[in-house]
Amino acid sequence: MANDPIHQFHISKLIPIEVGGIDLSFTNSSLFMVATVASAAAFLYFTTTSRSLVPGRAQSMAEMSYEFVANMLRDSAGTAGMRFFPLVFSLFMFVLFANMLGMFPYFFTVTSQIIVTFSLALVVIGTVVLYGFYKHGLKFLGLFVPSGVPGALVPLVVAIEVISFLSRPVSLSVRLFASMLAGHITLKVFAGFIVSLGALGPLGIATAVLPLLMTVALTGLEFLISFIQAYVFAILTCMYLNDAVHPNH
Amino acid sequence: MAGFDRPEDKGKAHPDTAGNPAVRDEDLERRGRDLEAALAARRAADEAKVKVSAGSRDMVGFGQAMKLSSEFIAGVVVGAGIGWLIDQIAGTSPWGLIVFLLLGFCAGVLNVLRAAGKIAEPKQGVLGRKENE
């Protein structure tokens, strides 16, 4: 069905690979992940090769994205958090380029797959936990014990804090996945209306203008959401990293 | 901005530099102060711009809604998941699920309140800031 709004998220195997009973096939999702990394790397490499003192348009775009992420990280995690800059910048560029590539017609949106966003979120939380224990030892667990809580309530509060902490990767990944999925489905549904209305004769074609306008507006909105979600992902990463750097609650 | 300022200022400063180093220092200081003032003004303007656009945008409201709902749902889902796991391992069905679903609900509310900035992260304001500086 050409009009099936879910069809665009279908994963197809391009090169079937199986190692020890585990399916490691190179799928269209893998292809677009490679494309995302390649385009992000190419963008940053080619815009910064000339390295002129007065940046041209392309170079200033690369510098702007650098400064954007650097300021975000410095504001939320302090200068001590700057050691995580490579991680945050890579995540931001990956999510941004994956979202933007997904806006091309017939392209696959990597970030609309929850397993992709969940893996990204696990990388973030894994870094927070590992670095927290490495840097602060058992004191890192103090993150779960707010000070000034009466003794009897501590177990309850700790349980709630632990659940709240564990829910972070879930909310981080669900947010990105849900907004990309919902946006692309909405876009496809409205675009489908144009085709089905257009098949109804002259009156249908006249009314098809309405969903067409809607689709144009939604496309703009989707570009905005693509950027906002990449930004939200990066800023939440910064805030969680702040917990690993300063767990002194 | 500094790049634009320098050439014309240099032109002005050059005649002075030959005979009078004191004037040059003063000039340099003045330029530094001017630049600082200009930067401060620009920064304030930028901040004001951000505030206005943030207030007028519907998109921010949409983003906020997505954020708060996902925070709450994640809390409940993770709580229920932990309870279910405990039941599976310890065989205490359905008590683990019941207790941890309720705790998850609390955690979800806590997440939402934190995300909305209604309650501060405990003690962050006192200790966390100090270490930052």
Oligomeric description of these chains: heterodimer
Major sheet characteristics of chain B: none
From the alpha carbons, calculate the radius of gyration of chain A and give it in angstroms. 22 Å
Question: What strand order characterises the main sheet of chain A?
Answer: 1-4
Measured distance between first and last alpha carbons of chain B:
29 Å
Can you give the helix content of chain B as a percent range? over 70%
Q: How many DSSP H or I helices of chain A?
A: 7
Number of DSSP strand runs of chain B: 0
- Estimate the strand proportion of chain B: under 5%
- State the helical fraction of chain A: 55-70%
How many strand segments of chain A? 4
Helix/strand class of chain A:
mainly alpha
Structural class of chain B: mainly alpha
The coarse silhouette of chain B is rod-shaped
Family (chain A): Belongs to the ATPase A chain family.
Subcellular location (chain A): Cell membrane; Membrane
Membrane topology (chain A): Multi-pass membrane protein
Organism (chain A): Aquamicrobium zhengzhouense
Architecture overview:
The complex is a heterodimer of chains A (249) and B (133). Chain A has 249 residues and is mostly helical. Chain A has one domain (7-245). Chain A has 7 helices and 4 strands. In chain A, the strands form 2 sheets. Chain A has a two-stranded antiparallel ribbon. A two-stranded antiparallel ribbon of chain A has the order 2-3. In chain A, a hairpin with a 2-residue loop joins β2 (18-19) and β3 (22-23). In chain A, α3 runs antiparallel to α7 and α4 packs parallel to α7. The longest helix of chain A has 45 residues, at 154-198. The radius of gyration of chain A is 22 Å and the shape is globular. The relative contact order of chain B is 0.07. At the A-B interface, α5 and α7 of A face α3, α4 and α5 of B. Chain B: It comes from Aquamicrobium zhengzhouense.
Q: What is shown here, in short?
A:
The complex is a heterodimer of chains A (249) and B (133). With 249 residues, chain A is mainly α.
